Fold:
Amino acid sequence: MSISNHALLLAFAMLFALLAPVRPGLAAAAITPAEWSAYKEKFLDPVGRIVDNANGGISHSEGQGYGLLLSYLAGNRGDFDRIWAFTRTEMMVRDDGLAAWKWDPATKPHIRDTNNATDGDILIAYGLALAGEAWRRPDLKQGATAIAMALAAGSLDTVGDLVLLKPGNAGFGSGDRADGPVVNPSYWVFEALPVMAELAPKGPWDQLAANGKLLLAAAMKIGPSSLPPDWVSLKTKPAVADGFPQEFSYNAVRVPLYLVRAGIRDRGLLAPFAAGMTDDQGRVRVVDIATGETRELLTDTGYRIIPALVSCVLDGKPLADDLRTFQPTDYYPSTLQLLALAYARRHHPECL
Amino acid sequence: MKPTVFIAAGTALLGAVVLHQGGYFSSPVTLPPVTLPNVAQPAGTQARQDGYPKPIAVADRDDLPAKADAAPAATAAESTVPASSQKVDETALRYFASKGDTKRLNAEIARLKALYPDWTPPENPLAVRKEGDPQLDQMWKLYSDGKLPELRKAIADRQTAQAGWQPPADLMQRLAVAEAREQLVNASNLKQYDAVIRVGSTNPSLLTCGDVDVLWRVAEAFASTKREDRAKDAYLYILNNCKKPEERYATVQKALPLLSRQNLDLLLATEQKTPDGKGEFAALRGDIARQSVANADADAKLVIPAADIAMVEQLAKDGGLASDSLLLGWYYVRRDNPQAAETWFRKARDKENTAKASQGLALALINENRPAEAEDILYQWRNTDDDTRKVYLASIANLLAVTPPPPIKPEVLQRMVQEVYANKDAASAQQLGWYADSLNQPQTASQWFKLALDWKPDDEPSAYGLALTRWKIGDKAGVKEIQTAWAGRSERIPTVGERSIETAALGKRRTRAAAPDDTSEDQPVRRRPAAQEEASQGEVESPRVARSGRGQPVPRGCSTTLDPSSLLPVVALSRGWCLMQVNRPVEAAAAFEVALRGGSGKTRADAAYGQSLAYLRAGLTDRAAISASQAPMDSDRAVEIRTALLETQANTAFDQGRYNETILALDERSRIAPERTGLMVLRGYAYLKLRRFADAEQIFRAAAATGNHDALRGLNDLNAARHPSAQ
Structure:
């Protein structure tokens, strides 16, 4: 026990030195108390539930993962602990120990579908691992390890010679749907994958990360816009999956944010986002994959900051003033904005 | 290795349960023995009233083979340090005293005394002064109120603000146990049984008479994961240790559907006398017999005590519950005793004419070779669900196969034809072929055989029938075509044309009708000798051609066939409805089309609605969807059509193996209309096909709770899929 803990500590130390994501000692500065306070006022129910206010007040495992990550970045241990308590007792009730993907205050039981969402599981494990390391909390790291092991055991799929992330453990494989396997490129939380590798070293995490980039590059070639669709069918050559909006939309919009946060600076992957995901006023386009045409424009700061951050890390163009100010709107864009701001503060202060 | 969980009653430390590691809390420090989970329970847990229970430990022996802490009593003995050397934690005591909660205070004193024999309680416990830690008081209050995440936050906040502050170990233990309980209950509600057992086995202090509900849930988890002996042990633990009469009674009730009769008898052996001298489980005996018969209904090979059947028969006679008669009907029909089954289904049906009672009765009648009665009884229920439809179609196939052909009323024949067509039922289409053939209508017969073959391309008897009837009408090229297609796959098809019709027909194999379920699987369809004159029976309707009406009585205003295009839109509309009444949807759709094209306003809207219904009934879903979009409908009608479309879509997707789409369609449907039990079963099978076993089980169990036999069968199929080697 103590030996493996020690080894894990060492591994983490190396990891932080290599990737330099968020150094534990500086955690308190990444998100300001005022920002966190505004965020939680609007989206954190006192019972520890991150509320998707634009979606009927439900919670997702993804939201709980974001909540853990943000409260960690804000250095708020009390809020972190209550989010974790809710996640554990209410959502991590599956036989395999992963979280059910959706919790609805309006239904009884609150969980109706026991399927999981792998990005939610990854984010939860990632938040726990970071906090466990920074705050020297073996219980958190133990929780993170259990999730990483369960993901490695049941959430990865081998397609051809690629290791891919199933969106959920059930329902997306080649035997499940006519166009399966279906994947979601925005479920690759790239910055978390090296941490998963430390937690569950037997899992093929490095390959998963590498293949995620390959998948993304291929998905960006499906349509004329060079933007990936939210959901991709890999039955034959990559194509837009059936039954989902055939768009670059709310899911894929966070892909460049994840790339940047993970320290990836591959222009081939990032430049098309900087160039193609906005209109001339910096609003984020929801794009029809087949035609490349704009279907909708997203004006929320939390969306607009993403291409701006990409431009800044690639070309040194600072963020506009309004993007630096946090005013909570809806759960999802507000979350993305804090993740972007926290990253810029820590790694690219010149952007601010 | 599958964990086996060990349940033992420890006696070393009265009332004390030792917790080594509570839930996820994993301090490497060995914690002192502490706490009973009966003091200051969070909201939602049951307060214990009868004396301290002996502790029960569920420990995972396989996972922890050599660790002493798998046995709590031993751990307690080892880790209990002499009391004098320990500081007794009086936090809870002070809290209860300050609140004036005498009952909990006394319980806490008793608990501390049991733990620390040398400890002397304060002389006047109510006078114990608070030591002035309002923040800690607030934490105990959060705990008492069941606000566990808020308590976690309060603790972490204080630790942040006050470096070095540690919460009382007692509080942390209780918090961990209470959280484990929440997690266990949530997992149990979602039938995540492995998770239930995992949480239970790592939190032995959850498992006491103080919270029988948790014990029930653990027992259910064992029973549902093929560990019935462990389930039995858990139930027996309750009956041997826990005193509350209502909990004891409920324990046997809970065990009833989950344990074998043999294990159930072990539970019943613990029965105690009530003050009035009766056995405490007396009122349950009837339910036990019912469950026994229900088990036998689901498993035709299961042998149950005759006394159980006798008791249910007595209950059915005394109480007259339709459900009891149904239990008996299904019991007998699955044991090849259709006469007895008929009697009980009739009793059930007299009480309450339902689809299920009618379906059972029809099955019994089919098995008694009385398919005409079966058809007549089930016609009104034919669209209730897939299973009823299958039995209905089986009644048709069997009726058509009766030798010699019985007289069938034209309207009956017509409605059967419509159903065969709408359901694309190859078996009945084949029988219609033979039936037409026997009435010397080889042209019609060959069309039916052709249709049967379209619906079931590998159906050799239909191919044979088609070859034979083509030969009869002199279509030599047609015969050749079949013979080429079936070369090497049939012995008799190549012989068509070599012998006389009669001998060729006599060479036909006996064929079988579609089996509605396992009980009628072996029901032979009797074939009549080939060409038999039955002029009195009129004409068999050919499948694709509009019926001529020749030889038919004229019961209604639309019984004749005419080209509707000559009609005024309003007349065409009413003709459409009339044709729907007599179940001729294809013709009705044509009539509605005229009304739709020529009409306007309400006529047009009604026609669109009617045509969607007509196409739906004819099984032409795509066209129904188009019709529905032709004119605006009011919301009730729109919902009705949309519901039916989604239902058909779900069924079609299932038949074609697209199970995710089945679920998507059902999800969408359930947003606008409640899910009927039959569709729940469909959903269950879709999950089953997707190998989402837990979801399948959840839905099958929910449907089975309504007494649905398909759902019970679903559960069996689920077990078979989960444990293929056991089959």
